[in-house]
Amino acid sequence: MRNIKLVMEYDGTGFAGFQIQPSGRTVQGVLQEALEKLTGKPVKVVGAGRTDAGVHARGQVASFQTESGIPGERFAPALNGCLPEDLRILESGEAPPEFHARYSATRKTYEYLIYRKTEGAVMHRDHALVLTGELDLEAMREAAAHLVGTHSYRSFCASGSGVKGFIRTVEELTLEEPGEWLRFTVTADGFLYHMVRNIVGTLLLVGQGRLNPAEVKTIRDSEDRTKAGPTAPAPGLYLVRVEYE
Amino acid sequence: MRNIKLVMEYDGTGFAGFQIQPSGRTVQGVLQEALEKLTGKPVKVVGAGRTDAGVHARGQVASFQTESGIPGERFAPALNGCLPEDLRILESGEAPPEFHARYSATRKTYEYLIYRKTEGAVMHRDHALVLTGELDLEAMREAAAHLVGTHSYRSFCASGSGVKGFIRTVEELTLEEPGEWLRFTVTADGFLYHMVRNIVGTLLLVGQGRLNPAEVKTIRDSEDRTKAGPTAPAPGLYLVRVEYE
Q: Domain check: are B90 and B176 in the same one?
């Protein structure tokens, strides 16, 4: 058995998320179908991040095992030849036998994009959160500082997610403003379910003056999901990078 | 009868063009339906530019006559309340009785957007032409200079378009390169059918070294559509501004 690693991007708009489901078009489902066509055998694909419906990826990583003789680097062009145009393989290659796209990942980076103007909003509604109105970026950055480091992020984890540990290390959480955009970048050793979208939803409350920055520390320490802000919508979220040792 | 002017933007991806058709979802059709709901009477909407299927607008202008008592500036919010989210009215207001969105227009500006990287392309495929590979911008600009001024632009007009005069005045034709994008901006007193897309298709041949800049003058003077380049795809095109006296 050979182990193959794929790096891919997709427009999440037309997918019911990464993970295969009984019904609905999924990234995993579309990939497995293409791989079965290519290798002649059923293939089980594992993704580094199980992105939700409407969430995009610019650097999702997946792995699968195969007995096919196709050279590792040839999977990318071969797959692109039969995949739909909202899913593209950026690179492919052989991976060590123990490599697992999800369990071997040591660090992931997500971005969350907000488009802040009325004009042009129709073009961006599937690929960003459109949000006009003033935001106090200074206050949001002050609040964001409480969400960096090793903490329980349970207050930002969708309830009923079934996870056991809630401690994660956020290495970076930055806000940038290129032109009419606002971009959050979050790097961590792992993410809880809806963690980035709940962090963004909470920081937006701070930006709108409905929470003060110090309250975000209180919310974090409460380990109570109901204290934090709403889950920001899926179309603004991008999985941009997955790193391995 | 009052005369109302609308300025709007739309994502052309989900429309079979501006102009109403026996079948297919059109901007005019969707607008007229919303206006009939709002005013209680059938309304005939005229657009400044009859954009094709897949072509976008950031500043399309339309006009219509109505006996409704709704104040001119209230049409924008009222329409936005019942229009689908891929069509937004940016402003509305009373216009003089003789105003006609198409016939009164003295100048229009289109942009054509090209995304030049493989990475990120899936996000932009409906809103730009994705084109990788080297382009000689210097040569393209030299060629573009032959497509500014008052000339017959028949070589760049879709054949069988039924127009009589082919003389137009192009006031501006520029190429800019913000980041991984290439943006053409064309301003003229009027446009022939497919004119911008045929100009872009021809300039791309120059950029790829398949035509030299001087040949573009020859093509222009030939008044022969078959001499010019192919029609660039619809998703890159935006109607950005319509001007009136």
A: no
